[in-house]
Design brief:
Layout (H helix, E strand, L loop, with lengths): L9 H13 L4 H8 L3 H11 L10 H43 L9
Length: 110
């Protein structure tokens, strides 16, 4: 007869996937270590994977971090442009205040 299948609760699966992601070992090595079929671990990884738990060496993690970096660079460029615009507006306002605050020459004393 067939061997009894082991059942694992969801928390165990999530913790195992987190462990997988934090390791530099292959899924196959960890499967041997935990005595769980590699196919099962791959399935759990697909279901419970969280990029924040992966080592930076993961290509998917690198792509995610590159995308995040591009978004932050774009936001910085937008902020720099807004700052430049506000600085130009401030310079114009300062000039206007200077011009309009000068006393008018009164030549009616002749």
């Amino acid at each position: 007869m067939g061997e009894q299948r082991k059942r694992y609760n969801e928390e165990f699966k999530k913790q195992t996937v987190k462990y997988l992601q934090e390791q530099t070992k292959s899924v196959e090595d960890i499967a041997l270590e935990l005595d769980i079929p590699a196919k099962t671990l791959h399935g759990w990884k697909a279901q419970y994977r969280e990029f924040k738990n992966e080592s930076v060496a993961s290509m998917d993690r690198i792509r995610q971090l590159e995308q995040l970096l591009k978004e932050q660079e774009r936001e910085l460029r937008l902020r720099d442009k807004r700052i430049t615009d506000v600085e130009e507006e401030l310079a114009i306002v300062k000039k206007a205040v200077h011009i309009f605050s000068k006393p008018k020459n009164d030549d009616s004393s002749s």
